[in-house]
Prior knowledge:
Elements: E1 5-13, H1 19-27, E2 45-51, E3 54-60, H2 70-85, E4 88-94, H3 102-114, E5 118-123, H4 130-141, E6 148-151, H5 160-170, H6 188-203, E7 213-223, E8 229-239, H7 242-249, H8 254-271, E9 274-283, H9 291-294
Helix pairs in contact: 6-8
Amino acid sequence: MEEFKSGFVSVIGRTNVGKSSLINELVGEKIAAVANKVQTTRTAIRGIVNRPNSQIIFVDTPGIHKPKTKLSDTMIETAFGMIQEVDLVLFVIEATSTEIGRGDQKIFDRIKEAGKKTILVINKIDLTSKENLAQLIEMYAKEYPFEAVVPISTVKKKGLEELLQEIEKTLKPGPAYYDQEEYTDQTLRQLVEEIVREKALKLLQDEVPHGIFVEVEKMKSRKTKNAEFIYDVDCCIYCQRDSHKGIIIGKNGQMLKKIGTYAREDLEKMIDCKINLKLWVKVNQDWMNNENLVKKFKLQ
């Protein structure tokens, strides 16, 4: 019988290379916010993949970007900090790259410094030619002894099984750290915050999302008259300006209603339970530099 393997795998890369989408696809459940915006992932989020002979715990990390606030500094510290904490690193780059850009080089330097076992994952292969892909593989392979190089497309669901097999090959024998039914170590409260923020990121104008922060203020479960479980959740979206508050609420409250409806639908599917979600919007001008709030995003 094959020996059971397990381990922690950090997924690292620049903003918008598709890290969160990749983890959601591998786990088979939405655990991380996905949006084509900077700062979509702000903390280290764990997703668990249970296979017949292995348990792989993926850690999604914030995208590497140029820091401008205490929040940005904390996010980058979290991403780089995870390189030291895990058994294996997945370094995700875009197939459309033609050179090792500044952001990728920064990550590369940290990986080299740590000397970590690393798999190079080339995402978005559906957007490039075979020639460009071959050149990219050759360019990166010269720079580091990767355990494997795996071209994938999360959109087309290509290469994902091959990636899991390569990860399994690299991991050492070990125990299952979580129950077989678990797919994330996030609490329901964290999932609500993550999904509400994702819907806001997708629906709002570009200048607003970077400045929002979502916090569940109250969560209680109760039984309905039909003996069904329902969660009552009060959730606040913090923003940096009064003008942003108006945009988030929208004309006649329509935007806030849309954010709440989409978030509730996703959450009910995920936890198979009814949710009564109430959203509020408050202004907190300098929350990105507030030590107490930013602590929430430190490496867990």
